[in-house]
Amino acid sequence: MNATLITPGTYHLTTPNSPLTPKICRDTVAILLATNGHAPGLADTARTLVSELVTNAVLHTASPTIDMETAVLSDGVRVAVYDDSPAAHLEPLAPAWDGEGGRGLLLVQALAQAWGVATARPYGRKHVWFELRSGSGG
């Protein structure tokens, strides 16, 4: 089998806050992982989690831009999504049983090896991040 060499690196993407932003971000993460030789399952899980975090930023903030930082690691990926919301403490909430939303952070909590919320210095922008390791989704 001809395997692609995984080259660790960090990639930055800035997008306008629009309904297209979640698709752009999840497709970017999938391309980065596939190009670097990660298993498709890891990319699928990363796409799901990126979609949840970016959709939250698009729907619940007034940020003019959404930034995504993707660190492709030899054994996985770390993704951070930045927005201008001052809320630096997010908790997964139990969604209404018949609700259409409210499960994003629960998915992140369930599927990621680690995740969190922080305020970036010196920029002062909140970011929500997660880490996935090979074998966790790929």
From TrEMBL:
Question: Where does the source fall among the domains of life?
Answer: Bacteria
- Protein name per its UniProtKB record: Regulatory protein
Q: Where is the Histidine kinase/HSP90-like ATPase domain?
A: 24-115
PANTHER family associated with the record? ANTI-SIGMA-F FACTOR RSBW (PTHR35526:SF3), ANTI-SIGMA-F FACTOR RSBW-RELATED (PTHR35526)
Signal peptide boundaries: none
Extract the InterPro entries matched here: Anti-sigma-factor_SerPK, HATPase_C_sf, HATPase_dom
| Annotated keywords | Kinase, Serine/threonine-protein kinase, Transferase
Gene Ontology MF terms in the entry? protein serine/threonine kinase activity
